[in-house]
Amino acid sequence: MATSAAPETRPAKVWWSNATFFVGVHIAAAIGIYLYPWYSVPRRTLWLTLVLWQASSLGITVGYHRLYSHRAFRARLGVRILIACLGSSALQGSIKWWCLRHRLHHRFTDDPVHDPYAATRGLLWSHMGWIFFKPRYERMNLVDSDDLEHDPVVRLQHKYYVPIAGFFGLALPSIIGAAWGDPIGAYIWAGLLARILAWHCTFCVNSLAHWDGLQPYSDENTSKSNFLLALLTCGEGNHNFHHAFPHDFRSGPCLLDWDPSKWVILLLHSLGYASGLRRARDEDVHAALEHMSKHENEHVRGHVHGFEPGYHTIPEGSVARGEDEEAADVWTGKVWTLGQAMQYARAGKGVGRCAIIIDGFVVDATGYLGEHPGGAAIIRKYSIRADPGENQKEGAVLSESEEVWKEASWAFHGGLNQHTWAAKRRMRELRVAKLSDD
Ligand SMILES: [Zn+2]
Ligand SMILES: [Zn+2]
């Protein structure tokens, strides 16, 4: 059983440069708006404020979030460059900086130590408190970043982030405003104020979307679905769906969900600038909905005791097991020895099959590698043909004596990722045999 005791949080250094800049922009915008109120600003400057606020928000939601953090689709070079510029203009850090923290958030949602903006640390912390500190994220090295390192746009934007962000976020609004003789007004409104709007709307996804709303897909963490948030964040409102199916390019499965980010991705796709749009399987979405409605009924009948949504610590070496896993252990399929499992793994085409051992079952993840929200590399590390300590051996044909592998149960059940009910269900579908005790 999982224990519910939360680990202690450790003190982190104050991030003075970030804190000073963040507070300074708020003060400068307040003074600027006081001296230059909306009724004295040219209408074109107000329109520019709205357009640049939404453009930077889309850079974050379509680019930083769905494209780069979750690999929900692929985009051509021109789109990636545009996204890097728009995302930079939101002044929320480089793509690499942002994505790595966001991947940690999904892996360890609500964990007060490993989730950078854990909702379990309070509304203010999850909204903006976390950006005032500079903690050392001990599990950052577990997050897959190969895809980010291999993208030249990401590398370049990370290297020259400060001048790029300064130009697109603060200088460009003034340059555009100068076209109608209002560079100062454009700086205050479309520069400073639009940045603040983009900041707080994005931050609401970490705070409001983990605080109030509905949980139709999963109640294993604090993520909620909230329509107000969808309006404020270019469609990121169905956060409960997003945490259950993070690789989906849509924020929600319904056609009528308010989701301008999804519409932009569909437009890019129809124009040939985006491809490989990933979406959750309908059967998985329906199964999650059904599971939740059953779960809620059980709550009403008082049959479920002691369940606390939120963070659960999984001690290393132990495995959290729920009723679903135990029911699935009534196995009527094949039973293999370890030798037979290794033979199965070797028998695949090319470098063999990607077979991993979870809960005493052989799970064939070969066809799932491209679908895995956390990337293929992490699964390959646990493949019974790969040495988890030596990545350079991945893909190599190993001799029998070299076949070192690591049982993946701890990693799967919270050690490296707090997988949801939907993810566990998908994993069970991929089981090919049970391991015999000998
Ligand atoms: Zn979240
Ligand atoms: Zn996300």
From TrEMBL:
It is an enzyme of class 1 (oxidoreductase). GO terms for cellular component: endoplasmic reticulum membrane. One of its GO terms (molecular function) is stearoyl-CoA 9-desaturase activity. It is found in: Membrane. Its EC number is 1.14.19.1. Keywords: Electron transport, Fatty acid biosynthesis, Fatty acid metabolism, Heme, Iron, Lipid biosynthesis, Lipid metabolism, Membrane, Metal-binding, Oxidoreductase, Transmembrane, Transmembrane helix, Transport. The chain crosses the membrane at residues 21-39, 45-65, 77-97, 160-180. PANTHER family: ACYL-COA DESATURASE, DESATURASE 1, ISOFORM A-RELATED. Stearoyl-CoA desaturase that utilizes O(2) and electrons from reduced cytochrome b5 to introduce the first double bond into saturated fatty acyl-CoA substrates. This is Acyl-CoA desaturase. It comes from Obba rivulosa.
